[in-house]
Amino acid sequence: AAGSITGDGQKAQGLAAMAKVLAATDPNRAARLAADAEALAESIPQTNAKAAALAAVAGGLTATDSDRAEQVAHSITEASPRVLALATLARDVAAADPDRSARLAAEAERGSQSISGASLRAPALAAVARAMAATDPGRAARIIADAERLAQSIPDSNGKAAALAAVAEGLTAI
Fold it and tell me: Could you read off the pLDDT of 24-56 as tens digits, one per residue?
C-alpha cells in the first residue's frame, strides 16, 4: 500500500502509521517498517517535510522501541513537530513509565515556548496538555486553557478552527 504513495514525506508517514498499527500483532514487521520509514524520512531534503515525517516515525516507534522513538523525536530540528512528537511519546509511555512521561511532557512544554505563531503553538500546547493529563491533571488543565486562549486569538477562521479542534482533542484527555 505504501508503495503507491509518491511523495517521500507521505510515504514515510504511511510506513510509520503502518508500523504503529502492526506493533501489537507483528512487532518484527512493525520494527522493519519503522526502520524503513526512518531511513526514508532522513533522506528528505526539505526541512519541514523531513520534520513532519520524523515526527510520524517517532510515533510509529513508540510501541516497539520507545528509546529509539525518543532519539528520533530529539533529532527533529523544527520546534512544532518536535514538541508534538515528544508530547505523543509522553502520552504513550505514561502508563508504563510515569516518570519518563512527566519528563518528556515537561520537555515538550519547554519546547512549545519557542514556537512562534498561535496557529502552531496552540495545537502544540494542546498536545502537551493531553500528555500531562495522566501525570499532572492540574497542570494539564492550565495548559489547555492557555492553548484555548491562543486558539481564540487566531484571526484566520481556518487556522482558528484547526487549533480549536486540537484544543478539543486535548480536553478529552483531561
Answer: 999 999 999 999 999 999 999 999 999 999 999
pLDDT tens profile 47-96: 999 999 999 999 999 989 999 999 999 999 999 999 999 999 999 999 99
pTM for the whole thing?
0.92
Indicate the residue type of 21.
V
**How would you class 28 by CB atoms within 10 Å of its CB: exposed for 0-12, middle for 13-18, buried for 19 or more?**
exposed
Burial 64-102 (b: 16+ CB within 10 A, else e): bbbebbbebbebbebbbbbbbbbbbbbbbbbeeeeebbb
Report helix angle 98-112 to 118-132, nearest 10.
Answer: 170
Query: Which residue has 520524523 as its cell numbers?
Result: 54
The H-or-E segment that residue 88 falls in is helix 79-93
Instruction: List Cβ<8 Å contacts ≥24 apart for 161-167.
Output: 162/119, 162/123, 163/118, 163/119, 163/122, 163/123, 163/126, 166/122, 166/123, 166/126, 166/127, 167/122, 167/123, 167/126
